Amino acid sequence: MRRLLVLLLLLTTSAFGTTESKPIIVIVHGAWGGAWQFSRIEPFLRDEGFGVHRVTLTGLGERSHLVDAAIGLETHIEDVLNLIRFERLDEVILLGHSYGGMVITGVADRMPERIARLVYLDAILPESGESAFNVMGADKAQALAARAEHGLIPAWWVRPDKTFPRDTTHPLLTLQDKLILTGAGRDIPGLYVLTTEDATHPERDDFYPLSLRAKERGYAVITVAGDHNVHWRQPEATAQALAAALRQP
């Protein structure tokens, strides 16, 4: 009996010490969103040979019961850092969508030794000292801030009778907080995915200037035809495009 208990202990210890051998993508959603928004693309990414972890940031998605005006950008960065720590992930491909680009940039700066590559999917790509509002520009920032109620920005486009899952209220402070970087993650390779509904004039897309910023940093840049939520609307084609780009050296 004692030998059996020792064997079980060894097997348990071994299991907790292992990591997945396939490349791991950790996905960080955008503002008002949740991990549910990437549920459609996950099986296609797995078919392409990736392990997938989807993060839901504090106060959003299925964690919307925790929403609070005090939630800031650093809380969301810590959400992702803790997933990486507690799942014991290494060589992570860290993907951020939209506002999620702010979060993954902070994560890479805080934990560069665990990150193999950064993927910005139609995402904010900040410089040190910038907030999401800074990157958006004054007009858009003011319009969003004007919609805030007690420090929270409602998802005003969602009908009250819409069933779950659905977009939820977003903490204003996360968009106002400036991201201060040490530069520790600056050398991590990056990929920028610009999604555009007008393939002949991508320069008209709101995120086009950020794709240029990505090029200046030396990141690979690809364009995927579609709206801002290609991972939801055309998950298979988006997964294939991501996989092909990530296989490039």
Q: Give the helix level as a range of percent.
A: 25-40%
Unreliable sequence segments: 1-19
Separation, N- and C-terminal Cα atoms: 52 Å
Structural class: alpha/beta
Element-level helix/strand string: HEHEHEHEHHEEHEHEHH
Q: What is the fold named in CATH at topology level?
A: Rossmann fold
CATH class: Alpha Beta
Provide mean pLDDT, rounded.
93
The CATH homologous superfamily corresponds to Alpha/Beta hydrolase fold, catalytic domain
Helical stretch tally: 10
In total, the number of domains comes to: 1
What's the architecture, going by CATH? 3-Layer(aba) Sandwich
> What's the number of extended β-strand segments?
8
Tell me the strand order in the biggest sheet: 2-1-3-4-7-8
Assess the beta-strand content as a share of residues.
Answer: 15-25%
Sheet bearing the most strands, described? 6 strands, parallel
The Cα radius of gyration reads 19 Å
In one word, what is the shape? Answer: globular
Structure report:
- By secondary structure, the chain is α/β, with parallel strands linked by helices.
- The chain has one domain: Alpha/Beta hydrolase fold, catalytic domain (Rossmann fold, 3-Layer(aba) Sandwich), CATH 3.40.50.
- The chain contains 10 helices and 8 strands.
- It has helices spanning 2-17, 42-47, 73-86, 100-110, 132-136, 138-147, 173-176, 208-216, 230-233, 235-246; strands at 24-28, 51-55, 92-97, 115-121, 152-153, 170-171, 190-196, 220-225.
- Strands 2-1-3-4-7-8 form a 6-stranded parallel sheet, with helices on both faces.
- Helix 3 (73-86) crosses helix 4.
- The longest helix is centred in the first third of the chain and has 16 residues, at 2-17.
- The radius of gyration is 19 Å and the shape is globular.
- Mean pLDDT is 93; it is low at 1-19.
